[in-house]
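Help needed: design a sequence for this.
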């Protein structure tokens, strides 16, 4: 069994990997039309596939869509159950992930953190109170011009470090492990071309935030695209003739419930979120996402868009609005509620690492939401970073060690006490 100073083994290895991974630009590109959407993800996947080979894993595949798969046969396990660990390769396109320069702030003193590449940028406990939990600890940020990439390169580093530990500590029990690293999670394409047959019976994504988080619920997610068709006329002669699609689209957005915007919601509150507005007098397009933890409430948002569209068309002869709504993902709690032991073991593993468990619902989604409806119950565990998708993204160094420790404990728990599985849900 590993020695009592397991953290001393895990931490330097996880930190070295993390600092190396974030230096590779793997930003997703939602406009590319390819999968994976960026060459950087292929480069990172190739690096990880090579490392998996060096660690002795089997059936390693880095496929044309950018997915990386590998298998570690079980050892000292009481069943043939297989366990999947998943993290994603890409980083958010919201902030640049090119030329990331990570900075390790030693022995954080509780005050503002300064960024060497942008003297005007500061990270303070006022905007991220979690910082004060790590006073005296080392904190990693980027240098100020990019995001850090802890979402989800901390998850990649955790899984790879846990695999190295399993190869080093030969007596540590674990079921068969099926590893998968996915591309384009940040643009909701993380499971678009995944090979379900290469995955296991139970899964965990390592893609959460603060150390201790265990997430078994996420948003129900819809995307809405509204296309406004108007009639352009020379503005000097437009009275009672012009139907300005751009202006009407802007008025439509202004008519949405102001209290149901992301900047005014928290907890279990849902929202409308406009992600794009483009066009001219003749035609304009509004793209938005609709989010709620309750599918019925979210469908009521869709109904409101239908009613508003009809009202605008009635009030403005000559205007037509095409509304298209598509489902992006569902609340994974619908599946995980039927597999309570998956979350129970996750909680036990976090507690065994000496960390307070933070049970929360994700105000977003993960690959696990899709995997749940593909027959693979998959809650989300912390990777340790905070303020994702921003230049102020940060992670405490200790989280990079605690995350692989939790993975190792999960391996032992599933090897020693595999419960009977409930019937798998049909694929959505």
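Sure. Designed sequence:
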């Amino acid at each position: 069994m590993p020695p009592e100073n397991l953290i001393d083994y895990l931490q330097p290895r996880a930190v070295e990997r993390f600092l190396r991974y974030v230096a590779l630009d793997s930003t997703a590109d939602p406009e590319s039309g390819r999968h994976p959407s960026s060459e950087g993800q292929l480069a990172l996947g190739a690096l990880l596939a090579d490392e998996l080979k060096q660690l002795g894993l089997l059936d390693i595949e880095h496929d044309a869509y950018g997915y990386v798969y590998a298998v570690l046969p079980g050892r000292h396990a009481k069943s043939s159950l297989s366990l999947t660990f998943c993290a994603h390769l890409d980083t958010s396109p919201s902030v640049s992930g090119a030329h990331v320069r990570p900075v390790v702030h030693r022995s954080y003193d509780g005050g503002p953190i300064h960024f060497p590449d942008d003297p005007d940028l500061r990270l303070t406990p006022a905007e991220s109170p979690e910082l004060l939990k790590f006073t005296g600890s080392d904190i990693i940020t980027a240098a100020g011009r990019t995001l850090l990439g802890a979402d989800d390169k901390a998850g990649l580093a955790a899984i790879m470090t846990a695999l190295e530990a399993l190869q080093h500590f030969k007596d540590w029990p674990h079921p068969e492990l099926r590893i998968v690293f996915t591309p384009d999670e940040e643009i909701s394409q993380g499971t678009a071309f995944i090979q379900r047959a290469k995955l296991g019976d139970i899964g965990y994504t390592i893609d959460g935030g603060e150390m201790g988080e265990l997430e078994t619920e996420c948003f129900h997610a819809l995307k809405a695209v509204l296309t406004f068709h108007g009639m352009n006329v020379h503005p000097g002669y437009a009275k009672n003739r012009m139907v300005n699609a751009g202006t009407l689209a802007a008025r439509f957005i202004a008519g949405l419930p102001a209290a149901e915007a992301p900047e005014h919601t928290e907890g279990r509150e849902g929202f409308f979120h406009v992600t794009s507005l483009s066009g001219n007098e003749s035609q304009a397009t509004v793209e938005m996402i609709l989010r709620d933890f309750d599918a019925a409430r979210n469908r009521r948002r869709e109904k409101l868009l239908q009613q508003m569209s009809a009202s605008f068309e009635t009030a403005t002869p000559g205007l037509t609005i095409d509304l298209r709504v598509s489902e992006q993902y569902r609340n994974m709690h619908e599946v995980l509620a039927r597999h309570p032991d998956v979350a129970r073991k996750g909680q036990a593993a976090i507690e065994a690492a000496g960390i307070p468990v933070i049970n929360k619902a994700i105000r977003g989604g993960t690959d696990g939401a899709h995997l749940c409806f593909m027959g693979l119950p998959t809650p989300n565990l912390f990777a340790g970073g905070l303020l994702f998708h921003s230049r102020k993204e940060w992670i405490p160094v200790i989280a990079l060690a605690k995350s692989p420790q939790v993975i190792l404990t999960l391996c032992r728990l599933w090897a020693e006490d595999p419960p009977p599985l409930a019937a798998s849900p049909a694929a959505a």
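The chain has nine helices and 17 strands.
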